[in-house]
Amino acid sequence: MILLLLAAAALTAQDADAADQEPVEQQAEEQEGTAGASPWQAQIYSSNTDWKPEELAERDSWDLAHKCGGTLIAQGWVLTAAHCINQKRIENGNRVRLGADYIDNDEGVTFRIDRMVRHADWNKQGNHSYDIALVHFVADAMTNPTHAGPIEPIPLYDGPPLEPGVEVYATGWGQLEAGKGKGFESELTMAVLKTVDCADYPQYQNQVFEYQLCAGPREEGATDDTCTGDSGGPLVLDADDRQLVGVVNWGKGCFQEGGAGIYLRIDNQHFRDWIDRAMAADPSVSELR
Which of residues 287 and 15 earns the better pLDDT score? Predict the structure, then answer.
C-alpha cells in the first residue's frame, strides 16, 4: 500500500506557499494505533472553535465541526458532493482530514482547502441535480502527519454503468439515527449495500436522474444505509479490486427497512471526463459544466 502523507510537522507559512507550487508527497511509516480502515476516506470539517455555550451544551466541538465525507482520488484532490462545499466555507477555513478512523481526537492529518470546482449545473434549490464537486487542498502550518494512518487514493471505476445487484459499500461518520441534530459518529462506519432498481422505490418516483443510482441493504430485513453527515463520501465496489463507483448524494429517511439511498454514478459514461477536466482546469475556475 502506498502511504501518502504530506509531511508538514515543521512547515512554516512560507513553506506552505511553496507547497502550493510543487508536491511534497513522500513515503512515511504507518503510525501505531491508526490502522486506517479506508485509506481514501476524507472528512470535510469546519476549523471554527468559536462555538456558542448552548451549542457545546448539546454536542461536542468535533461533532459540531463535521460537515461531510469525501474521497481522495489524486494528489491534492478530494471528490465530494456539491452541497458540501462553497466559497464561503473555504474562506471560513473548512479543512480536509485524511488518514483517520476517529474524528473526535487528533487522529489523521489535516489540510487547508484552497479552492474548489463544482459542477456548473448543480441545483441548490433542492432537486439534487449534478451534486458533485472537487476540493483542492494544500499543506499549511496546521498540517501534522504524526497521528495519520495510511492514506491512498482510490481508482475511479471505468466500466459500464452498474446494474442492480452489484455489491458495494459506503463509509462515513454520518448519523446512525435519522432526524435533525442527532449527532455524528466519532468512528468511521460502513454500510454494506447492493445496487438496486430505483423504480422499486415509489418514494423516488421521477426524482432520480439517469446519472444517479440507488443502493440499499444486501440482506432482507437489514437497514444498512447512509445518512446525514455521510454526504460526499465514497460508494465503493466491494471486490478484490476496490474502485470508486459513486458519491453519497441524498435519500428520504435513513435506516428504514425496505429503504435505499441515492448516489451519483462514477463510470465510463458518467463524470469521468468531468473529473479529469476539473482537475486540469485553471485554478481560477470554480464551476465547470
Answer: 287
